[in-house]
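Hey,
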Amino acid sequence: MRVVHVFSALYQGGAENQLELLLNQSFRATPEVKHMVISLKSEITPLWKRLEKMGVTVLSCNLNSPLDVKGILNLRRMISAFSGEKDIIQCWMYHANFFSTIASVGLKNNIVWNIRRTQIPQGITGLIAKFSGFMSYLSKPYIVSNSYAGLDSHVAAGYNKSRMKVIPNGFDTSVSIQDVEGGEVSYKEDDSDFIFGHVGRYAPVKGHRYIFEAISILEKKLSKATFDKIKFVFIGRGVSDAQDLKVYTSNSKLMEKCVFLGEKEHISPLLQQFDCFVLPSESEGFPNCLVEAMLAAKPCVATDVGDVKLIGDNVILLSSAYSSIELANNMLIILNKSESERKAMGENLQMIASNKYSIFESWKQYFNLYNKILGNT
């Protein structure tokens, strides 16, 4: 079996992290499966280099815009070499789904789409996503959603439900649940500091603004001595300089409470320094960062979006999307718990995540799907 993974680009993100984990698991469990990766864009990223170091061939078709005919023809040429009875074209997210399907017209490729959002996005990507729903009845790809919320919303948007299935994200629990010491950055001045942390690149839908608003709410509800000990740490690219957040990040008093670490290749050591993980998103499918925080045994507060409630088994403190007041109130609940109560909550979440979301189980489901498509079962 050969699997060609097609991505829009190989930046650091949830889908890209999942690819890396799946490949490592495949190398261990099913070494007979051969993998290669095609990036629509030609930018060589740290992930690109790591994949090559793993022995994976990485290519680019230099497809730089929806109207780039030359790039589409390059993609067609590349994937036409994988039209055999033992080949799978695994596409990751809307652009890869769309362009790989267009490039495969007339070819007998076994195409699998992957969707990783709940809401259909806006703009050009949204148009591509919506048109792909129509295409799903014509080209009949198999469609993997990483969340039930994502499956339901895409069926409502016109996707072919008969070709869809849910495979939740998987995690290397043997590594993630270890008690990792230290980290490349230390942001605790002393052990009495209390760290609320968030992981995620900037996008309006990720809800960073609600954390900033919650900080101001907490300041009014807490004593000065307690509030002075709290810090808010953000891991992810584009947060500190996002134009939409300037109303908050230009507030020097507010920024005294915040630490911005940017994008990090390895977040497990940094998660260890969190006292509570915060997910303020307006929309999610399956949030990887939430499960990573659970595996690090951290108490979590989150908005009730996507599969968050399903993932947390009612242990995560949930608030309504768009409500900084509810988010702040849940942070306050965490602060008012004893250290032993917070530890018990974190350990409970760690057990849930390690039992439900191992990369072993995730790759097994992908492998079984590929075998089904190829007629091996």
